[in-house]
Write a structure and sequence with these properties.
Layout: E1 3-9, E2 26-32, E3 35-40, E4 43-49, H1 55-65, E5 69-74, H2 85-105, E6 110-114, H3 121-133, E7 139-143, E8 145-146, E9 149-150, H4 157-165, E10 170-173, H5 188-207, H6 210-213, E11 219-221, H7 228-241, H8 252-256, E12 260-262, H9 268-278, E13 283-284, H10 300-303, H11 310-324, H12 327-334, H13 337-348
Parallel strand pairs: 1-5, 5-6, 6-7, 7-10, 10-11, 11-12, 12-13
Antiparallel strand pairs: 2-3, 3-4, 8-9
Helix pairs in contact: 2-3, 3-4, 5-7, 12-13
Length: 350
């Protein structure tokens, strides 16, 4: 069973919200039968292939690359946290409905994560409830900051409280990265900005006491946690030497044990570091399909790591993702036909 935890989708027919609401809405402009540009305010934000909307092409790629299940999540540029909450909720619902329908049509091959309008926590909680209760999605993807506010801002506590109460896993993906004025050249936003942004998000959740308040909260960080795993000893040292700044009874490394990380750091040395610091049960194979920076084939680095046992590889390549997403538990809790099908697929390896 191979589960690619980190993949992205967007509806081919996503509405042009710029025609209804003011703002920097992403739109999809097809350039050919097999590709399109994601446009923001008249500029090309990203070139994409039709794999972002065509589930059958995705399945062909999965069969060729040995992936049994993909976990589908929105492209972060569509989060639209800057927008009016009514419009942002509508954008979230369009994407959540699309992901849910894609999973419903291919229940043995896909699991889905939703998106919510985090700029209004009550609206975010309401849409999260719809995602897990009505759409049969397995978790929620959120950004590393909300309009420049770190995730430890007090207004987000209600969201994390409900995610813990309902046992909804969260996938935290970098977006609107720090130092944007210094990273346009060389595509540093992707290679330097995103890892740094992820580290700031993880550190904020720990240092502020969010994980102290909600110890059962399930969180996975994209891209191997960015630079967070490697600055964790420095965070601990800060906690030691600045007792007047402490908000938690334990140092940051104590709480970091609760985190999960996808495996997308391209390097066996880095993956070994993740495993040594957090455990092989906390690493989930993820490729960032279908974008240029993805790992091809998914799990390539893990496959070639001779120091890992077959059991450890099996867990990282698939079992950890299913456990993180509560696949069996949710099947038992809700008992819908779609969940039964997904549960059987996970057990059989189809």
């Amino acid at each position: 069973m191979r589960v690619d935890f980190h993949t992205h989708v967007i509806p081919k027919e996503i509405p042009n919200f710029a025609e209804k609401y003011p703002g920097k809405w992403p739109t999809l402009h097809q350039t050919c039968a097999c590709g399109a540009n994601i446009m923001v305010e008249g500029n090309v934000f990203r070139e994409v292939t039709d794999q972002v909307w065509d589930s059958q092409k995705r399945i062909k790629d999965m069969d060729r690359e040995g992936v049994d299940i993909q976990v589908l999540s929105p492209i972060p540029v569509t989060f639209s946290y800057w927008a009016d909450v009514k419009a942002a909720t509508e954008m979230a619902m369009v994407q959540n409905d699309f992901i849910s329908q894609t999973v419903k049509e291919n229940p043995a091959r896909f699991l889905g994560l939703g998106t919510v309008p985090m700029q209004d926590v009550k609206a975010a909680v309401k849409e999260m409830e719809r995602c897990v209760q009505e759409l049969n999605l397995y978790g929620i993807e959120i950004g590393t900051n909300i309009n420049g506010e770190n995730l430890d801002a007090p207004q987000f506590l209600e969201f994390f409280e409900k995610a813990e109460e309902w046992n909804v896993p969260l996938f935290i993906h970098p977006w609107e990265t720090l130092a944007k004025d210094r990273t346009p050249r060389h595509n540093f936003m992707y290679t330097v900005g995103m890892p740094s942004e992820t580290a700031l998000a993880a550190a904020s959740l720990i240092w502020s006491g969010v994980l102290e308040k909600f110890p059962r909260l399930k969180i996975c960080f994209a891209h191997g946690g960015g630079s967070f795993p490697y600055i964790l000893p420095r965070l601990d040292q800060g906690w030691e030497v600045w007792p007047h700044l402490r908000l938690t009874p334990h140092p940051p490394s104590h709480y970091a044990r609760n985190f999960y990380f996808d495996s997308l750091n391209y390097d066996s040395i880095n993956i070994n570091y993740l495993i040594e610091r957090f455990g092989h049960d906390r690493v989930l194979m993820g490729s960032d399909y279908p974008f240029l920076l993805r790992e091809t084939p998914p799990g390539k680095v893990i496959n070639n790591m001779e120091n890992l046992t077959e059991e450890q590889k099996r867990m990282i390549l698939g079992e950890n993702a299913l456990r993180f997403l509560n696949v069996k538990e949710k099947k038992l809790n809700y008992g819908t036909k779609s969940h039964d099908a997904r549960g059987k697929a996970a057990k059989s390896g189809t």
